[in-house]
């Protein structure tokens, strides 16, 4: 029997509630389809800090490195607002990304038909929207050195962060974007601020060269990141795949997610390079939404983004394409039936709990 | 008679066409109100590069430094895409900001009632929207050193930009935001990425301290910049004044502008510190839109943002509050009459040219 190892890091806030629903999906797939998933669970974020003073322990890092795939919930909350910078909840996530070398962050922004109406944008602007943001995840201002606060005396301090990109980093992320575009509408738009940033000049140059050398069949365009943000709001359907750096990707993918009106529904995948021998790639899957501490523990959170992240895991880590399709179809079915958690509730629908949503999706699978 | 010196830098693309309409407003104010405006004109951006190989000449920089206020059109266009980084069109604007020490960029995002319908957002989300983004403009990743591309050999290059903020820079921009909030709805939201950036940690700390020491009557909140972008799209009316750094301000103010559906209408002001002796502050006023090379020279561009920038100039540089109010009212009147340039055209309205729009506003003034 196949054996597939999953390492689960539910984290803080609504993370554990959402992850509990993924457990149900895993159980059903093991039972009915002999999928052979084995699971182990660890701590990340504020709960890890509470347990052992670190945002993720070395032991859990080892397990994450060894697993076939990591499922990640969410981290953070007001409880840990004052913990030291180095051990703040986000540090756990950033360490996972960096140590596992998960340089490619895939963030689909899809508008579920049943929810087109719940966007703050006009329905015709977002209906049928399906874009993919490919964000560089292990470089840029997130990790560049120096990154420090210096005391200058006289009551003055200096905060410094460094944006750094090397050619190979830009090359590999743009290759991922071009490859994915080939499976979609074959268009990539690259976004940077080359009019202000030297890293943007290099970004533009390397994306252009990679395109020319290896992907000239894909349609490539370039946009300044600020103009890109505007265009996302104005007419998002003009885009297929957007490739951009870590910080712009953070901003732009969140905006794209919000456009869809489906924030509680959107998954993401963070992938490493395929191992040259086995072809396997390290991977972490997480919902785009955060830990939502204000509603945590009440059983009302929307588990769909977490379950959809598991669907991405089936697709990208285990090549279980049929199962991924079925799971995504199950989500759509449940929404079409009018079942809703509170965050996506609207007139004429039926409001259900986190657990009921998980059950309904499992039943529709 | 009062004498008020304006230095005009129309720049590239639609800049000159838009500036021509401001000339009409100035003429009428001089004639009918003895406003005493004197004007001189210079080159900036691509046209300056064409004329003398620099994005702005030292002579024009001197004039900008000496004038009571600078009116700036727009810079850039495909013609100059390949000019060296140091003399690219944007370098002229960046030099003006830096040498004039225009650290406070005020970007109102207002939804003109007559245009509420033309936003990509639902009408109830943007109707009546009135937020002010206060963007730091002379620091951060725009100007920090090192800023370079290094050749690493082996076909590898490294692009580096540096985000730097000192305490005093954060203090003075947050003071501007708090002061402006007092003249509005008394609320400031500060945005950074303190969960990832050390400059964000310092930003948060200094804004909080400035608030406590001098502005505790103003309501202050903090938001991560990515969440802030989302909230702008979800429910922008939750904000009054937003204060943020140079790069986040670039992204967020463009998004806010696009929300309003009034991009061709939005002005901005870039202000220096008041001179300790005279109380005067250096200032530059520019429309939020760019040079729009695709429609330049056709006489169809919307001059309203440029004229509204002049209204801000009346308000902030010359304390001509009544005149600014009248000019803004004239713009609203013309829109209420259904007169529109092509970019904001809609059913039942009358499409007019750039010059006709300028004439109509002057007539309504
Ligand atoms: C939690 C935080 C560190 C993270 C980021 O900034 O990358 C989050 O906003 C995201 O987009 O995954
Ligand atoms: C033209 C460019 C340098 C500029 C910026 O990035 O600041 C523009 O986008 C703006 O917002 O004024």
TrEMBL record, chains A, B:
Reactions it catalyzes: (2R,3S)-3-isopropylmalate + NAD(+) = 4-methyl-2-oxopentanoate + CO2 + NADH
Cofactor(s) of this protein: Mn(2+); Mg(2+)
Residues reported in the UniProt entry to bind NAD(+): 77-90, 290-302
Name of the protein this chain belongs to: 3-isopropylmalate dehydrogenase
Superkingdom, taxonomy of origin: Bacteria
This protein's record includes keyword Amino-acid biosynthesis: yes
Molecular function as annotated in GO: 3-isopropylmalate dehydrogenase activity
Pathway it works in: Amino-acid biosynthesis; L-leucine biosynthesis; L-leucine from 3-methyl-2-oxobutanoate: step 3/4
Location (main, coarse): cytoplasm
Top EC class for this record: oxidoreductase
PANTHER family the UniProt entry points to: 3-ISOPROPYLMALATE DEHYDROGENASE
Function of the protein: Catalyzes the oxidation of 3-carboxy-2-hydroxy-4-methylpentanoate (3-isopropylmalate) to 3-carboxy-4-methyl-2-oxopentanoate. The product decarboxylates to 4-methyl-2 oxopentanoate.
Isopropylmalate dehydrogenase-like domain ranges (all copies): 5-361
UniProt xrefs under PROSITE patterns: IDH_IMDH
Cofactor detail note: Binds 1 Mg(2+) or Mn(2+) ion per subunit.
Gene name for this UniProt entry: leuB
UniProt binding sites for Mg(2+): 226, 250, 254
Record's subcellular location: Cytoplasm
The species this protein was found in: Hoeflea ulvae
NCBIfam families cross-referenced by the UniProt entry: leuB
UniProt keyword list: Amino-acid biosynthesis, Branched-chain amino acid biosynthesis, Cytoplasm, Leucine biosynthesis, Magnesium, Manganese, Metal-binding, NAD, Oxidoreductase
């Amino acid at each position: 029997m196949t054996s597939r190892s999953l390492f689960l890091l539910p984290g803080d806030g609504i993370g554990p509630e959402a992850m509990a629903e993924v457990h149900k999906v895993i159980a059903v797939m093991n039972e009915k389809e002999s999928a052979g998933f084995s699971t182990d669970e660890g701590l990340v974020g504020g709960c890890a800090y509470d347990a052992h003073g670190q945002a993720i322990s070395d032991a859990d890092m080892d397990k994450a490195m060894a697993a076939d795939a990591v499922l990640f919930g969410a981290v953070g909350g007001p409880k840990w607002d004052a913990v030291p910078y180095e051990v703040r909840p986000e540090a756990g996530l950033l360490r996972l990304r960096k140590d596992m070398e998960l340089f490619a962050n895939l963030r689909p922004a899809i508008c579920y038909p049943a929810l087109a109406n719940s966007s703050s944008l006009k329905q015709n602007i977002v209906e049928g929207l399906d874009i993919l943001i490919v964000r560089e995840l292990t470089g840029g201002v997130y990790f560049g050195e120096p990154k420090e606060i210096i005391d200058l005396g006289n009551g003055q301090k200096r905060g410094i962060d460094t944006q750094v990109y090397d050619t190979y980093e830009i090359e590999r992320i743009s290759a991922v974007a071009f490859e994915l575009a080939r499976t979609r509408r074959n268009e990539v738009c690259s976004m940077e601020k080359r009019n202000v940033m030297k890293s943007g000049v290099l970004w533009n140059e390397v994306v252009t060269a990679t395109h020319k050398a290896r992907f000239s069949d894909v349609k490539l365009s370039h946009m300044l990141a600020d103009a890109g943000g505007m265009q996302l709001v104005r007419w998002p359907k003009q885009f297929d795949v957007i490739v951009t750096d870590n910080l712009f990707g953070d901003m732009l993918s969140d905006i794209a997610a919000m456009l869809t009106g489906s924030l509680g529904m959107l998954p993401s995948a963070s992938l490493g390079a395929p191992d040259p021998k086995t072809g396997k790639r390290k991977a972490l899957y997480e919902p785009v939404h955060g830990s939502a501490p204000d509603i945590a523990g009440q059983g009302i959170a929307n588990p769909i983004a977490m379950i959809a992240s598991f669907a991405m895991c089936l697709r990208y880590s285990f090549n279980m394409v049929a199962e991924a399709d079925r799971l995504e179809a199950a989500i759509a079915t449940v929404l079409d039936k009018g079942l809703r958690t509170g965050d996506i509730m609207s007139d004429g629908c039926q409001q259900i709990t986190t657990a009921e949503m998980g059950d309904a999706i499992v039943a529709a699978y």
